[in-house]
Structure formats: C-alpha cells, structure tokens
Amino acid sequence: MDNLLDFTNKTALITGAASGFGKSLAQELAKRGANLVLADFNDAGLSQTVSETEALGANVVALVGDIADEKHAEQLVASAVETFGRLDIAVNNAGIAPALGPLTQIDADTLGRQLDVNTKGVAYGLKYQLRVMSSQKDGAILNVSSMAGLGGTPMGSSYGAAKHAVIGLTKTAAVECGSMNVRVNAICPFFTSTPMVDNPVMNPNNNIEEVNKNLARGCPMKRIARVEEIVNVMVMMLSPANSYMNGIAVPIDGGMSAM
Predict the structure, then answer these.
(1) In the chain, fewer beta carbons within 10 Å around the N or the C end?
(2) pLDDT confidence bin for 104, thresholds 50/70/90
(3) Which residues are catalytic?
(4) What is the CATH number that goes with domain 3-189+227-250?
(5) Exposed, middle or buried by CB within 10 Å (0-12, 13-18, 19+), for 8?
C-alpha cells in the first residue's frame, strides 16, 4: 500500500461514528489497517458501524455516550490506550444541527446545546487526546468544523458560533502542541448529504432534492457535497505521510470560498 494511504496498526478514535462522515471515515481507515475506537450516542447505528468495520478486518472498540460529557471523552481515550497501547489519530466529528431562526430569536436551550456538543465536545476531546499524544511525541487530530465556522451563518447563529469556536480550539492546540509532534487541523465542509442535513430540522417539508438544490444555489459547482468527497480529504489530512500540516482550517466547499 502507498505510504500516503497506509494506516496499518494506527489507532484512530472517531466520534459521531454511527453515520455520516464518522461512519464513512471509520470504514476507510479500517480498509487501510487502522485499529478503531468509535463513539456515538446512537447505540444501534454505532453497532452497525462496528459490524461493518470488523468485517473489513479492523480491531474495534466502541463506547456509547454523549460527547458533551467530559467523562465520556476521558473514557474514550483511556479505552484506546488500554486496548491498543497508544492513540495515533483522533477525529472530533460528532455534532448536531440547530433549529433554524434569526439571531434576534436565539434561545438559551438552543445555544447551550450547540455549545455543549459542537464546542465543548471538541474541547473535552482535545483535553485528553492531547495529553496522550504529547507524551508519545506523536499524533494527529482532525476537528470537524464547517463553512459556518469561517463566515456568517444566517438563520443558524448558534451553530456558526459553535463551529467558529472549533477553529479557535484547533489553532490554539496546534500552537501549544506542535513542538511535541502533534498536528491539529480542522476541516470545514460545505453542505453535504448526511443525516444531519437530510433531517426534519433542515428539511421540514421532506423534499430532500429541492432543499439540496436551494442549499447549493450559491455554490460554483451547483451541488452540495457527497460524503465520500469530504471523507477522502479527511483521510489525506490524517495521513501519516502528511507530517507538516498543522493549525489549518481547510474549506471543502465546491468553490464557495473563492467567491
């Protein structure tokens, strides 16, 4: 296997692994020889991902829980070390979408839950992941932000605030731990056909095709992304051969950021 795509015996922790980016990335890393530590609050979905990645030959540990719970983040890292002896890769992917509405109507519950899951979940993950990787003097972390983390988010202010914070955490961690050979980056996808986008909150009329056309209207490529297009970039960013990329928030957006 090409060194760029070889994850043999690397231990990778992925949150939000029951569906979307997390599930697809787990499958891709399993094909490339990685050991997996997978997490999600969706027990049934997580079990399905475990079955599918084990069928691809991966050694898998799974833990159901809420990533907004700091203890859960600590347990995930501990499981990686106890089972596989180290933690080489961590992907803080778990996230939730908010109910849409103007900033003038923002409410405490929506804002609080966005910050709990989308920001604190990443911060808690980093806290324990960085401790292990810094002591190893080796590791790569990828935080899943969003194009909403790079610009304004009309009708989604709580989500945009949380995803901007993810980029701030990414850059801070990259600066603090770069000298210990720990790389921390963020990926910022445009709208992608995942369960988070194709759900009643984003799509109340259940017309997925029409909603996706509207979401893609301002994109130069005139479509939203496919999951595999985002995951392919995630694999490249995490590659052991990609050893000097650090502290970057990479937009994967069909050309939106070029406008």
Answers:
(1) C
(2) very high
(3) 159
(4) 3.40.50.720
(5) exposed
